[in-house]
Amino acid sequence: MHYPILAANLKKTGWAISSGFDRTDVNSVADLKGGTIGVSRLGSGSYVMGFVLADQQGWLSSSTAVAQPYSNTAILHTFENLRKAVNSGAADFFMWEHFTSKRYYDSQEIKRVGEIYTPWSSWKIVASTKLAGGDGALESRVEDLFGKLDQGIQYFNDNADEAVAYISTELDYSEEDAKEWIKTVRFPKHTEGVSLDTIEGCVRILRKAGVLSEGKGMAPGTMIIQKK
């Protein structure tokens, strides 16, 4: 069963590039080429962003074949394991969302080597093809979902102080970091619809990472029900 992409929300996400705090051999992005990357699991965001970084740095030799810009990939499952690995030497670096990482920079458990932004927005909304007609029409339940999401986004935008209070008490953020994070967040006024350029860029990177294969699955244009 295919699941077409219906919408995109949130802006591009900043990912921190981190290594062990006392690592003297890793001080810049250039030091990462040929090293060991730590990831939570194969195909995860931390895995795919390694290829985004390598692509930006010119470390990939082919646009379609899966290149290996790193000597090894350490699958470590959790954020805690990733932090331990860059200090023990089991991995040289890993990538994780910036503000989630920041408190561990403040405590000097890990250090920031660089930062990279995702080439796509943070979240996509997908649905079964059973809910989308061939003419681009959507079931009323899906249209209702978009309406409720748009209402929720408006509430979030109008109540930033409430969002900061929740994030700083329920999540792993300080109040100061929650306020800084809020400044980086931008939702669209209307969630429905997706840019074809965004999906084409995503597919290109996923093919380089070996997550998708050329000639298999849906073409980018057919993944989208409604384009922006």
Using the alpha-carbon principal axes, give the shape.
flat
Rounded Rg: 19 Å
Low-pLDDT residue intervals, each spanning 5 or more residues: 1-9
CATH architecture of the largest domain: 3-Layer(aba) Sandwich
Q: Please, what is the CATH homologous superfamily of the largest domain?
A: Periplasmic binding protein-like II
- C-alpha termini separation: 24 Å
Indicate the proportion of strand residues: 15-25%
How is the secondary structure organized here?
Blueprint: E1 5-20, E2 36-39, H1 45-57, E3 72-75, H2 79-88, E4 93-97, H3 98-106, E5 110-126, H4 140-158, H5 160-170, H6 175-184, H7 196-208, H8 220-223
Parallel strand pairs: 2-3, 2-4
Antiparallel strand pairs: 1-4, 1-5
Question: Can you tell me about this structure?
Answer:
The protein is α/β, with parallel strands linked by helices and 228 residues long. The chain has two domains: 107 residues, 3-Layer(aba) Sandwich (D-Maltodextrin-Binding Protein, domain 2); 109 residues, D-Maltodextrin-Binding Protein, domain 2 (3-Layer(aba) Sandwich). The protein has eight helices and five strands. It has a five-stranded mixed sheet, with helices on both faces. Strand 2, helix 1 and strand 3 form a beta-alpha-beta unit. Helix 5 crosses helix 6. It is flat and about 55 Å long. It starts with a strand and ends in a 5-residue tail after the last helix.
